[in-house]
Design brief:
This protein has 5 helices and no strands. It is elongated, with a radius of gyration of 15 Å. The protein has one domain. It is an all-alpha fold. The relative contact order is 0.20.
């Protein structure tokens, strides 16, 4: 059994952390109004995207390296679109974007690419 590289573990942990932050913000910014459904839906979307990134960076993950990188950039672009439409708090968005950028940096290492391509046959 091959060990998981450290940078892949860090990327998976940061994906999990981003999902937890999104769920906490979903609860923190909850308002029982009908107009708040869009804001809560954006936090749910970001939580699902970060949790899927964390799942993709596990040993039995389902995606190749290219798909992982694409999914990370889609997550960062979803954060950017949410900021443009004022659906999420700016400081939360900055935190989540930094987490996404660190996940991209951890995926850019050569050991992450060889491990993900070798584990997904």
């Amino acid at each position: 059994m091959e060990t998981v590289p450290r940078n892949v573990k860090i990327g998976g942990a940061l994906g999990f952390l981003g999902g937890i932050i999104s769920v906490v913000c979903l609860a923190f910014f909850f308002r029982p109004e009908e107009t708040a459904l869009v804001d809560m839906g954006v936090y749910m979307l970001l939580a699902a995207m970060f949790f899927s990134l964390a799942g993709g960076l596990t040993r039995g993950g389902q995606w190749s390296w290219n798909i992982l990188l694409l999914m990370t950039f889609l997550t960062i672009s979803a954060i950017g679109c949410a900021v443009v439409f004022s659906a999420i708090d700016l400081y939360v968005a900055i935190t989540l974007a930094v987490i996404g950028a660190v996940i991209v940096a951890s995926l850019s290492m050569p050991s992450a690419r060889t491990w993900t391509d070798r584990m997904r046959v």
